[in-house]
Amino acid sequence: MLEVTGIEKRYRGRTILKNVSFRANPGECIGIVGGNGCGKTTLLSILAGIRKPDRGSIRIDGQEALGRHRLLEEKIAYVPQENPLIPELTAFDNYRLWFRGKRREMERDLECGVGRVLGVDRFLKTQAGRLSGGEKKRLSIAAALSGRADILILDEPGAALDLEAKEQILTYIRSYVKAGGTVLLTSHEMGEIGACTTLYVLKDGVLVPTEAGLSARELIQRF
């Protein structure tokens, strides 16, 4: 279980996040929507341990996670909107670089694990710079999940992808949640928003639950 309490963050005199609190249980997909620049990426990067909040608490299965990088790495897989791949290296070399485990574990992952499920095994010899947007995203997700994390955090996973790639990512998100994982994502995509079990709106630094009965299309139109 992920419990976020009272997260606040200021940047250059501006309050980006104000007392952000929510809970995410196993088997849930939590969606956060909001306008560009509202603080969604800042919030996700704090949850992943990339940035520090000015105050607040992040507890995972009852344990305080802020400042405990080993716990965050073990429990959370974070896929930013911009992929971290090195374009000159092949997909295989990028996977080996980011994979959290031994070589044999990586090979097994490509044979029957998340790497195989996401189809990474089909383009291993291709330079990362020549991969499609969907292939880069799948490779980034597979590498992030190599640590067998319980919580998957995705920042705009379907952004700039074609319809087929969006559906492939969405299919994996659903299977991850069905298997008992927790997903937290930001999105402007109707399909991804529709797959969420709980939705929040982040506006003026405040995170609030969405109105009952509000459709994914209506949410997108508001932002």
Please give the number of β-strands. Answer: 10
Shape, please?
Answer: globular
SSE string: EEEHEEHEHHHHEHEHEEH
> What helical percentage do the residues reach?
25-40%
CATH topology: Rossmann fold
> How many discrete domains?
1
From the helix content, strand content and strand pairing, which structural class follows? alpha/beta
The biggest beta sheet, please? 6 strands, mixed
Helix count, DSSP H or I runs of 4 or more residues: 9
Percentage beta strand? 25-35%
Sequence stretches where pLDDT stays below 50 over 5 or more residues: none
Overall residue-averaged pLDDT value: 91
Q: What is the highest CATH level, the class?
A: Alpha Beta
Q: Can you name the CATH architecture? A: 3-Layer(aba) Sandwich
Organism: Clostridium fessum
Pfam family, one: ABC_tran
Keywords: ATP-binding, Nucleotide-binding, Transport
Protein name: ATP-binding protein
What does this structure look like?
This protein has 223 residues and is an alpha/beta fold. The chain has one domain: Rossmann fold, CATH 3.40.50.300. It contains 9 helices and 10 strands. A 6-stranded mixed sheet has the order 6-7-8-3-9-10, sandwiched between helices. It has a 4-stranded antiparallel sheet with strand order 2-1-4-5, covered by helices on one side. A hairpin with a 2-residue loop joins strand 4 and strand 5. It is globular and about 45 Å long. The chain starts with a strand and ends with a helix.
